[in-house]
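User: structure tokens for this one?
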Amino acid sequence: MTTRLSVIIPCYNEVNTVAEIIRRVRAVNLAHEIIVVDDGSTDGTGALARREAAAWDRLRVVAHRRNFGKTEALLTGAEATQARWLVLFDADLQHSPDEIPRFLEKLEEGWDIVTGRKVGRYGKRTVSGIYNWLNRKLFGIPVSDLNSMKAFRREVLEEVHLRHDWHRFFVVLAFARGFTVTEIDIVLHPRRHGVPKYSGRGRIVVGLLDLISVAFFLFFARKPMLLFGLSGLVLAGLGVLVGLLTVVLRLQHAMPPFGFRPLLYLVILLETVGFLLFGFGFLAELIAQQHAELDAWRRRALRSGRAGGA
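Assistant:
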């Protein structure tokens, strides 16, 4: 079965909302299908979704053996469909399924990704605002809300490779690959059942570390020598300067208050770390070359697959 639009709904312990959300998404006046991803739920969410699926052939339920997270749920849902357009829709009903046609209209205008900008009150506004601001400043993305409802072309997910918890950077990575991005305002409704699955202070730390990882990946993955080689040269240069300073002090018989031995140790440390970093730069360049060749192979395989499908 091939449709032009699939709505992917990751679910983790959403037994109180899954039946309602399926009925409401089904009621949207579109030729679409629903992919419910049971992400290791323990409260019967998957069983209830399968009962709903028995009455409609455009609803499919796929399941993880345990809870892997939203990124893996998105990828699993995408693998279960061949639809041209995909919508990522949360199962907490904080967004209305009636917004889906508006996202589809934007995609039909030619945009690759359409994100929702939440309008309404929610508890994590401050943290989310800082996070979104950092992403805009670091990566220059033209949207203001990265963690909301999204619709996008299938080709985007085929080129952007997501690691665990990197669904939050899906737009950033896609924009860096040259895909076009826009956003529309959507109303945020209060959660009626359950608790947020992605909250707590620990998520802030994880999000910050992931942000650093993504920045490193985007800025230095293709040219790692810029980081390792340049920093290695700087440290080695500092080692040379400290060594020259030590020689000058020695010739002038000017004994530092702490003696010459700490300066000599500092020279050894700077030179050793500097040349090690420079060597890491060469190894990283080899890895980057392999990654570029693999990426080119993937693109050729995708083009061949589309040509064969046509």
